Fold Thioredoxin domain-containing protein.
Amino acid sequence: MRTPDEPLVPAERNPRKLRMTALILFAVMIVSGILILISYEKWGKLQAEKDAQHARPGIVGRIDNKAEFGVVRQDASGAKVSDLFGKVWVVCGVSVKQPDTWKATREVLLRLSQRYAGNDDFRIVCFTIDPDQEGPAVLDTTAKELGVGLPGWWFAAAGQEYVHKFLKNQLKLGIMPHQKDGKWIYDSSITLVDRDRHIRRAMVPQKRGGPEYSAVFDFAQAAEWDAKGVKTGIDKSNVEQLEFLLGRTIDELLAQPVTP
């Protein structure tokens, strides 16, 4: 025991032990930071998926009930655009002789055809943008190659001017179909129409409380993003996430009645 008269002697510190303690504390801080970051990213993914699941479908336009014209389907039977009113339908322009131009869209449509097989309230409609070269016989061959048919899936031909204006002006697609160097240039996006002729899109909230945006069902673009390695921020590819949003929106619209 130290007597009151004995001088105070500073404790000797081991530099090696001090360095070790500092390294341990530093390592703990790094590991804690990594764990927090991982937890935050997982929370963000779950929140994004939750938001996508509960976002309401948005109305971005309406098909004029006067935009009526007749079509010839793949079995050479006649029909009218108004025959689709009261149903939920997806519609797009196609060039069946240029299969690569609607490859991504076609793959999604085939899955939708299987998903809603036998549902008389749902239709898939593909308008040929080149009716002069893709008449009913050509369209019927394509339908049989894909293993699809009426009444669930229409391949339809009509006057070229009517179809092009319908796609651009009524369905609000990005470009008017046109030819360049002997090849058709057109927008192969899918348009979703509800029972009341409204054009509908999935409304997706942005991360961290940002404003909603309407998801354009452009699967060709989504496939390009996937090929370039563009990430969605969740455990789905761009095509998978867009298809999920499309399917969820279709389900919601099928559950709604026609407005009196």
